[in-house]
Amino acid sequence: MTLPENINICGIKHAGKSSAANALGALLNVPWVDSDDVLREEYNYRTESHLSVREIYRKLGEEDFRKFEADILRKLWEYEEKSIIALGGGALNNPFLTSADLKNAGLFFCIDVPDKIAFERIMRKGLPPFLQGEKDPFAAFCRMNEERRSLFRDKAHLFIQADGKSSPESNAFLIREFCEKRWKNKE
Q1: CATH topology for 7-186?
Q2: What is residue 165's predicted lDDT score, i.e. its pLDDT?
Q3: Where are the domains of the chain?
Q4: Which stretches of the chain drop beneath a pLDDT of 50?
Q5: DSSP single-letter state for residue 129
Q6: In this predicted structure, what is the pLDDT of residue 99?
Q7: Buried (b) or exposed (e) across 95-108, using 16+ Cβ within 10 A?
Q8: The pTM is what?
Q9: Which of 37, 4, 33, 26 is nearest to 168 (CA)?
Q10: DSSP 8-state code for residue 79
Q11: How many alpha carbons lie under 13 Å from residue 134 in its C-beta half-sphere?
């Protein structure tokens, strides 16, 4: 299948975006990418290093990290062959992306899980850089997510309220249903 437009899966950190993108790719038989993986690979190629996304964020600082992320996203969105893209948790909040960038990005689907579940998943790898120095990291995480959720609701063509137990396949199925209806109506 050839996609008529990119399918972007957004949501808070550790909401299950990559798992849903993988399941959707299998359902539609199309490739998918994780924008954080592309960012990491590109940065490490350019700098001949082997850093994780968290380490790149620490090394660059938030502003330079967001500039680099915006460049990566523009390239992904501009590819002639459209794909499924699992976005980083803060990608839609990136101040270096313009409204024109977002307009040309394709469709947006948000997967949302309760903060407690996402925070537990994050903490498996330790406290991320954007929460270090916070007196109450969980409260800071919740505040950040509430701000992002309003943006996700604004941008998303479909907002999927997952309970943390729903499968990636069930989320992928909802996205596929939406896309098939949209594309059928455009014919």
Answers
A1: Rossmann fold (3.40.50)
A2: 72
A3: 7-186
A4: none
A5: G
A6: 92
A7: eebeeeebeebbbb
A8: 0.90
A9: 26
A10: -
A11: 15
Question: Which residue bears the tokens 């997952």?
Answer: 162
For 89-113, how does the pLDDT look when each residue is reduced to its tens digit (9 = 90+)? 889 999 999 999 999 999 999 999 9
33 in Cβ contact with 178 (< 8 Å): no
Q: Which residue has the tokens 């537990």?
A: 120
3-state secondary structure the chain: CCCCCCEEEECCCCCCHHHHHHHHHHHHCCCEEEHHHHHHHHHHHHHCCCCCHHHHHHHHHHHHHHHHHHHHHHHHHHCCCCCEEECCCCHHHCCCCCHHHHHCCCEEEEEECCHHHHHHHHHCCCCCHHHCCCCCHHHHHHHHHHHHHHHHHHHCCEEEECCCCCCHHHHHHHHHHHHHHHHHHHC
* pLDDT at residue 187 in the model: 62
Amino acid at 17: K
The span from the CA of 95 to the CA of 176, in Å, is: 30
Q: Looking at 26-128, which runs of residues are DSSP E strands?
A: 32-34, 84-86, 107-112
Report pLDDT for 158.
Answer: 95
The two structure tokens encoding residue 177: 């249903």
Q: How many Å apart are CA 32 and CA 18, to the nearest integer? A: 9
Residue type, 160: I
| Structural tokens at position 97 | 């992306």
